[in-house]
Fold this sequence. Notes:
Elements (H helix, E strand, L loop, with lengths): L2 H20 L8 E7 L16 E10 L2 E7 L4 H44 L6
Helix pairs in contact: 1-2
Zinc ion binds next to loops.
Amino acid sequence: MSSKKQINKLGKLKKGILQEILSVQTMFPGSFNKVYGKCGKTNCWCYRKDKAGHPSKRITWSEKGVGKTKTIPEKDAEWIKSVTENYRNFRKKCREIQRLEEDIRKLLDDYRKDVVNKTRKLRQYL
Length: 126
Ligand SMILES: [Zn+2]
């Protein structure tokens, strides 16, 4: 395939990825997990030593280098799962775009050299 065709092909791929990720409306960094904790009430079932405690879901992320952890309401478990997935996917696609851009740049170098050589052949003094 000529470098021109390849450049156009990669350009289309990049455009497709951009359209895909720019349609994402919600995303949030971090990961979420399930933890168990005691509520502290002496009359609660979790007060017993052999019980792990109440399950709760937490999200952990980093903001300006500071770690943050928040408890997620049960009803938001699926939502958090999807917005953190969106975030990871967005980052992944950005890396794909970066790789495509590097490939395009290399191909443009080849293309430039090729055209310069062809042009050179058009005039004896070049
Ligand atoms: Zn309890």
